[in-house]
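From the methods appendix. Each design record in this collection lists the discretized structure first, followed by the designed amino acid sequence. Records were kept in a plain field format so they could be parsed without special tools. The example shown here is representative of the layout used throughout.

RECORD:
C-ALPHA CELLS (91 positions):
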C-alpha cells in the first residue's frame, strides 16, 4: 500500500471529503499505510515499532486523533504493566 500511487476511490461517501478538503492523496496514503503498519506491529507485540509508526503518523498529520489516542493508550498500558496490572482497550 505504501508504494502504490494513490487515487480517489469510487465510494461516493469518500469523494466529497477528498475534493472539498483539498486532501493530499499521497500524504493521506502515507498516513493510512503507517496506521496499518502500527496496528499490525501492535498486534504482533512489537510495541516499540508500533510507537515509531504512530509517531511518524503524528509528524505527518498533527491532528490525527487515532494515532494520538493509541500512543496514549500504549504508554498508559506500558506504565500499568510495569507496575504489575494488566489492562485492555475495553477497560
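DESIGN:
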Amino acid at each position: 500500500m505504501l508504494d502504490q500511487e494513490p487515487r480517489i476511490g469510487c465510494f461516493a461517501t469518500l469523494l466529497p471529503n477528498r475534493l472539498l478538503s483539498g486532501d493530499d492523496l499521497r500524504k493521506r496514503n502515507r498516513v493510512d499505510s503507517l496506521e496499518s503498519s502500527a496496528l499490525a506491529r501492535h498486534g504482533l507485540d512489537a510495541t516499540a515499532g508500533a510507537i515509531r509508526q504512530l509517531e511518524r503518523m503524528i509528524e505527518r498529520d498533527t491532528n490525527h486523533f487515532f494515532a494520538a489516542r493509541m500512543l496514549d493508550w500504549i504508554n498508559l498500558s506500558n506504565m500499568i504493566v510495569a507496575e504489575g496490572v494488566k489492562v485492555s482497550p475495553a477497560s
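APPENDIX NOTE: DSSP finds four helices and no strands in the chain.
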